[in-house]
Design brief:
The protein has 315 residues and is an alpha/beta fold. It folds into two domains: 3-244, Vaccinia Virus protein VP39 (Rossmann fold); 264-306, no CATH class. Helices cover 40% and strands 17% of the residues. It contains twelve helices and seven strands. The protein has helices at 13-32, 49-57, 70-79, 92-101, 122-134, 149-152, 159-167, 185-203, 237-244, 264-271, 282-288, 294-303, and strands at residues 39-42, 63-67, 85-89, 110-119, 139-146, 211-220, 222-231. It has a seven-stranded mixed β-sheet with strand order 3-2-1-4-5-7-6, sandwiched between helices. A hairpin with a 1-residue loop joins β6 and β7. α4 (92-101) packs parallel to α5 and α5 crosses α8 (185-203). The radius of gyration is 20 Å and the shape is globular.
C-alpha cells in the first residue's frame, strides 16, 4: 500500500518542525552558495508540501517528483501545485540514474530530498551513492529514513552486521549491540549515513568533497532520521563550512524533535510567554490555566518558532 493512503503528510507536527528547520537552512545555504537556477528533486507524493516550500522559500521553478505507484502517478499529475513540476514515473533507483544522464539537468545545482518512509535498504544506499558521486557542483542532498530497529534487523545483536552489509567499511568494527538498541539506533544510523556520504565523496574525488549540513532525529509514528550535506565546488567549500558551522545554524539540534500535541489555544498561550530569558517552568504553565510535562514544555520552548498551527474549517 502506498504511504499516501496511510498518512496525511501535511498534518504531522514533528515532521513540520523538521521540514521548517531544513528549509530555513536551505535558504541560508542559497544565500551563501551559488544556488541560482537550481533544480528541486524529491518525492512529492500527492501532497507536494516540500515542493511548495521549495518554490516559495528558495524560488525554485524547475522541480521533479519521483513517483513509483501507478495510481499515485495519476494523482500526482492531478495534484501537482505548479506547472513546472514534472512527474517522473518509476522508483528512485530507476529514475535517478536517468536524471544524472539528462543533459538539460547538468551544470545546474540540485537540491535533492530523498524523503523515504522506509528503512535503509540496498536501493536507498545506491541512490545516495549515485547522487554523491555524480550530482552537479553545489548540489545539496538530504535523506530521510525510518530508524526503527525492527526495520533493520529484529535482534539488536544482528543490526551491526546488517548495517555493515549496507554501508561497508564506514561502519566501525567496534559498533556494538548497545549502539543498536531501539533507544540509541536513530543516532547511530544518522551518524553512519553522514559518514557514508563523506566517504563516498572522498572516494569519488569530488573537488569539494561533502560538507555535512543536517542531522535531525524526530518521531513520526516511527523514529525518523534526516541527514544531509552540501556538495560544494572547490571554491565554495569555505562558504559551505562557514554557514553550517555558524552559531545560528539549526541543522544539528542536540535533542530529538518531539513536539507536544497542543490545542491552538494552548500553543498560543505558551507562545505569548516566549521568548524569555528564564526557561518556562511547569508552575508557570499551570498559572496559564493548564498543565504539561517538563519535557513537553522544554520541547515547545526549543521549537516554538517552527510549531505548526492547524485548524479545521467547516462550512
Amino acid at each position: 500500500m502506498p504511504s499516501f493512503d496511510e498518512v496525511n503528510y501535511s498534518l504531522r507536527p514533528n515532521k513540520h518542525i523538521q521540514r521548517t528547520i531544513v528549509f530555513d537552512g536551505l535558504r541560508s545555504i542559497k544565500s551563501e552558495l551559488n544556488l541560482r537556477n537550481c533544480i528541486y528533486i524529491g518525492f512529492g507524493s500527492i501532497w507536494f508540501t516540500d515542493f511548495g516550500l521549495a518554490h516559495r522559500i528558495l524560488q525554485v521553478n524547475d522541480m521533479i517528483s519521483i513517483e513509483g505507484d501507478e495510481i499515485g502517478i495519476r494523482r500526482a499529475q492531478f495534484n501537482k501545485p505548479f506547472k513546472t513540476v514534472r512527474i517522473e514515473p518509476g522508483h528512485s533507483n530507476e529514475v535517478i540514474p536517468k536524471l544524472l544522464l539528462e543533459q538539460q539537468l547538468q551544470g545546474r545545482p540540485w537540491v535533492v530530498w530523498l524523503d523515504y518512509d522506509k528503512s535503509l535498504q540496498e536501493e536507498s544506499v545506491d541512490d545516495i551513492r549515485s547522487i554523491v558521486e555524480r550530482a552537479p557542483q553545489n548540489s545539496v542532498l538530504l535523506v530521510t529514513l525510518n530508524a526503527s530497529g525492527g526495520s533493520i534487523a529484529r535482534a539488536p545483536e544482528s543490526r551491526p552486521q546488517r548495517l555493515r552489509a549496507l554501508l561497508g567499511p564506514t561502519v566501525p568494527d567496534e559498533l556494538s549491540r548497545d549502539d543498536c538498541r531501539e533507544d540509541t539506533l536513530p543516532e547511530t544510523i544518522a551518524k553512519l549515513i553522514q559518514d557514508f556520504m563523506v566517504s563516498v565523496a572522498v572516494a569519488a574525488a569530488r573537488p569539494g568533497s561533502l560538507v555535512p549540513a543536517f542531522r535531525l532525529i524526530y518521531r513520526d509514528g516511527a523514529p525518523m532520521v534526516t541527514v544531509g550535506g552540501i556538495l560544494p565546488s572547490r571554491g565554495a567549500v569555505s562558504a559551505a563550512r562557514d554557514v553550517t558551522q555558524s552559531a545560528g545554524w539549526q541543522g544539528f539540534p542536540s535533542a530529538r524533535i518531539v513536539a507536544p500535541h497542543l490545542t491552538i489555544r494552548e500553543a498560543a498561550a505558551l507562545q505569548s510567554e516566549l521568548p524569555r530569558t528564564r526557561s518556562l517552568s511547569r508552575k508557570s504553565v499551570q498559572k496559564l490555566g493548564f498543565d504539561l510535562k517538563e519535557e513537553q514544555i522544554k520541547s515547545f520552548e526549543k521549537y516554538y518558532r517552527y510549531y505548526p498551527s492547524f485548524a479545521q474549517i467547516t462550512t
